Amino acid sequence: xxxxxxxxxxxxxxxxxxxxxxxxxxxxxxxxxxxxxxxxxxxxxxxxxxxxxxxxxxxxxxxxxxxxxxxxxxxxxxxxxxxxxxxxxxxxxxxxxxxxxxxxxxxxxxxxxxxxxxxxxxxxxxxxxxxxxxxxxxxxxxxxxxxxxxxxxxxxxxxxxxxxxxxxxxxxxxxxxxxxxxxxxxxxxxxxxxxxxxxxxxxxxxxxxxxxxxxxxxxxxxxxxxxxxxxxxxxxxxxxxxxxxxxxxxxxxxxxxxxxxxxxxxxxxxxxxxxxxxxxxxxxxxxxxxxxxxxxxxxxxxxxxxxxxxxxxxxxxxxxxxxxxxxxxxxxxxxxxxxxxxxxxxxxxxxxxxxxxxxxxxxxxxxxxxxxxxxxxxxxxxxxxxxxxxxxxxxxxxxxxxxxxxxxxxxxxxxxxxxxxxxxxxxxxxxxxxxxxxxxxxxxxxxxxxxxxxxxxxxxxxxxxxxxxxxxxxxxxxxxxxxxxxxxxxxxxxxxxxxxxxxxxxxxxxxxxxxxxxxxxxxxxxxxxxxxxxxxxxxxxxxxxxxxxxxxxxxxxxxxxxxxxxx
Length: 567
Ligand code: ATP
Ligand code: MG
What we know:
This protein has 567 residues and is α+β, with helices and mostly antiparallel strands. α2 (44-63) packs across α11 (444-453).
């Protein structure tokens, strides 16, 4: 390919719309252009890199025994009613009507379509197991589309779905996908961390996320400093330390006037105490019913864990009216003592003594509060948000916090969808059984951008060879000099014959401009063809990730470059 023939609109300056390095670089290197919020056009170079990521995904899915299909993005409302997700997907699902006024949606994911299909097409144990996948466009009306391809309204996902006779067989299908994901991200040159994850709206019992470690990641994760434990903060657990116990604290409970002191800082300032000593009590509506949730004030309540443990569909903060009715006080004075609504307390509060809490009375707090003696929650459950330096739930060593970008997610779904769609098979005895499912997603476009987020320097992108739009750029310094151009051309032809993607910079630009652009786009191998070196029978080869260039005999150039590409 000739640089002058394609479109690589590089930009010198950071575009104002971009916040994180990979987004800036995708725009500056001419890979991507924005149409409107969350919607992007792939320019030729961006599209070439995207196809390479897709190819890796496809090869590994095929190798793992999954079969490629293609399902409609436009789907009828009915299948979403069958799964009960027409409502629960909420505003994130794009909804529209066809000309007959039938309700349609643009698929945010495809559990419904595939399970509907399988309910008709697979009905005997002899046809199982099966795993299907597709690489296809998904639509999600994200609240805050941002960071370019990272959180878009329209993006490309590889989604796969496995169908098995029982849980053991489903575990094997899950493992095959998990292992394929490890290989895919390795081949993309990514450093990922696999973490235990929340199952969220998709449901199911168990899931893992593949996280690209990056400071700009939207997800918080914790990992153990000693063992293998790692989890998304939405799910993370901690070893519960010994009970919170303050000396001199088994005195009787007492009311103290705290006029206007509603927030933790004010209360801890007034009592001159560690926030840990204050019981934070939040009133929630859990599936519509008021309940009080308590945690010591040095940490937050994790609503994901709360919903999962209580098996609740919805967990929302209660309104001021509900709070007044449930606690007989304004917002800010709730506490667990004497409440009539159910109280759920974090495990960290078990056996706590000498605590301070709201008194369920305006402008008043209680001191000397002891769990068990003064209040008995319906349940002590693990609902506190995990923090850096908490202890590992497996080995009790310290946990540390990291940021990550979720590029892949694997779920054990069980029979959640197969039951609803009546996806049944007959076993060897002719008995009816429900098919056991798994589902597996990779954000292909998000993966592409994550590769850049993990691999760049002050001059631009540093593509790994496996996904670079072109592995080699040939900078012909003076395209008008015949001997230079002919070396450049024959090098390009010979490398292309060997299956290597090459771009030849034939623009009539100063060397400085060509080098800057080559670095910005980040081609892994740069070849410089200059008149003086050609006279000595040499060309220059430089790797993007290294500072030093090597002079190589023209006659050995193809082999040298080929060998670098194959390593
Ligand atoms: P997130 O928590 O980031 O919103 P999710 O958990 O809703 O993602 P899944 O339903 O698990 O996403 O989708 C599978 C994969 O699709 C994700 O792991 C992610 O890589 C990608 N993905 C999800 N939403 C988007 C989006 N808005 N833009 C780009 N990629 C996305
Ligand atoms: Mg996910």
